[in-house]
Amino acid sequence: MYYTSTRDSSVRVSSAQAIAKGISPDGGLFVPVEIPKISLDDISRISGLDYIGRAKEILKLYLTDFTEEELDRCVCGAYRAGKFSSDKVAPLHKINDRLSILELWRGPTCAFKDMALQILPYLLTVSAGKTLKDTKIVILVATSGDTGKAALEGFKDVENTEILVFYPVDGVSPMQKLQMTTQQGGNVSVCAIKGNFDDAQSGVKSIFTNKQIEEKFKENNLAFSSANSINWGRLVPQIVYYVSAYCDMVEQGSVKLGEKINVVVPTGNFGNILAAYYAKEMGVPIKKLICASNANNVLTDFLKTGTYDRNRKFYCTSSPSMDILISSNLERLIYILSGCDDEKTKSYMLSLTGSGKYTVDHEIHEKICESFEAGFCTDGETKQTIKQIFENENYLLDTHTAVAADVYNTYLKESGDLTPTVIASTANPYKFSASVLSAIEENVKSEDEFSMVEELFEKTKEPVPKQLAELKGKTPRFTAVTDKENMAQVVFDMLGI
Ligand SMILES: *Cc1c(COP(=O)(O)O)cnc(C)c1O
Fold first, then answer.
1. What is the pLDDT of residues 158-189, one digit of tens each?
2. What span, in angstroms and rounded, lies between the C-alpha atoms of 259 and 247?
3. Is residue 113 among the annotated active site residues?
4. Ligand 1 neighbour 289 (Cβ under 6 A)
5. Phi, psi for 290 (deg, rounded to 5)
6. CA-CA distance, 218 to 208, in Å (whole number)?
7. Domains of the chain
8. Does the CB atom of residue 425 touch ligand 1 within 6 A?
9. pLDDT band at 132, cuts 50/70/90?
10. Cα–Cα separations (whole angstroms), residue 445 to 258, 391, 428
11. From the candidates 113, 177, 288, 346, which is the catalytic residue?
12. What would the pLDDT profile of 262-285 be if each residue is shown by its tens digit?
C-alpha cells in the first residue's frame, strides 16, 4: 500500500513516511492510493475479536510496511486493559432498536481524540524509526480544545519527541483549558494564541511548509510532524471504530449482517466523518453519512450546494470543538471524488486560501450527495436535545453529540428514513458542564466549574471521570499567550534554537 499527495499524484510514500512527515511538502494531504476492501465474511470474522483484535485486522490493511510485531506493539500499547473506562474501548450504547450511541470518549482525556491519539505516538515512533534516524520529532498541534489534551497525554515523555500545543485563548471550555495548562511531562508545552482555531491551524500549517524553518530544523536534527487529523496516522485508527460499531450493531441485534446503517457525526475538521467514509468505501454496509454542524455551518452549505465559502461570521458556540470554518480533511474527500485529480484538488484549495471559497464540479457534488447528508443546529436546539434525551432516555449527551442527535432528529422527520443509525458520541458531558447543566436545570446554583460538575452529578448521577475531578484546585503550569503572527518564534523558544 502506497500513499500519495492530494496535490501531487506522482508522490509515492510508504505509510511510515506519510505518518512521520504528517503533511506532504507540496501542502497536500497524504491519502492511500486505493481503499482496501473487506467482505461481509471478513466483518463476521472480525466481530468475534476484541477491540485490539479488530484494530489489528483493519490497520494491517493500511500499514503494510509495519511488521506484525510492530503493529501488535502499537495496538496493544494504545488500547490495553485499563486505558479506557470500558473493556470494549468504544462501546455501543443502545437507545432503541433503531438508534445506538457509539461512545468514543472512554479514553484518558474523555474525548474521542483519544481513540487516535493513544495510538499515534506508537505509530509515529515506529514510523520515525524506519524513516528518520537520529532525528527528534517536534509535534505541533493546533487544537479546538480536545486534540490538544489528547495529544499531550499521548506524547508526554515519549522518547525523542517534543510537543507544542496552540489553542485559541477564548475558544475552549474551562475544563478543556485546565486539562491542557496543567499537563505534566518533560517534553510538553502549551501556548494560547490570540485568534480562533482556524488561525491556529493555518499558523501551524504555514510553519510546516516553510522552507527556511525546515532548513533550521535540519541543522538541529529536528523534524516536524503533526498530531492533527491532517496526519494519516490520526485518521486510520478512526476507521477501526466504525467497523467495530457495525460488528456490534450486528451483535446486539440492531441489524442483520449486510443490512445497512446510517452514521451521524458531529463534525469540525471533517476527520471523524472522513474515517466513516473510508469504512463505507471499504465495504462496511453504510447507507448515509450524516454530517452535523453547529452555527458554523460551512459544511452544511458545502455538502448541500457544492460551494464552500468560509467568508462568513465565526461563532463561538456551546460545542467549541466544532467551531471551525476551514475543514482540512475535506481536501481528501474531494481528491477521492474527483477521481484522484490532483490539479483540480489543488486549484480548489488554492482558491480557498485566496478568496476563501470554491465550487466543486457538478459530478463531484453528485457523488457527495450519494453518500452524505448534512444539517446544523443552534445552541438553543442543542440544549433542548440534551434535555429531551436525558428526560426520555435517561442518557446524558455532551453538547457536540447533542448537535448530532438534533441534526439526526431533523433528518428523520424530513426523510422518514428508518435505517438503523449510529451516532458518534465525541465527548464526555463533564467536559462541558456549564452548557450541559444549564440544558437540564433551569436554575443553576453553581458559579465555578467544579461546583457545576458537582451539581450536574447530583442531578444526573452520571459518574464524574476521575481525570476531570482531579483537576480541581490544580495550578496551571502553562500561561503564555501569544499573537498569532508569533507562533514560529514560540516554537524556536521552546526548542532553544
Ligand atoms: C474534534 C471534535 C469534534 C470534531 O471532529 P472532527 O474530526 O474535527 O470533525 C467533534 N466533537 C468533539 C468533542 C471533538 O473534540
1. 999 999 999 999 999 999 999 999 999 999 99
2. 11
3. yes
4. no
5. -105, 115
6. 13
7. 91-110+233-431 (3.40.50.1100)
8. no
9. confident
10. 50, 20, 22
11. 113
12. 999 999 999 999 999 999 999 999
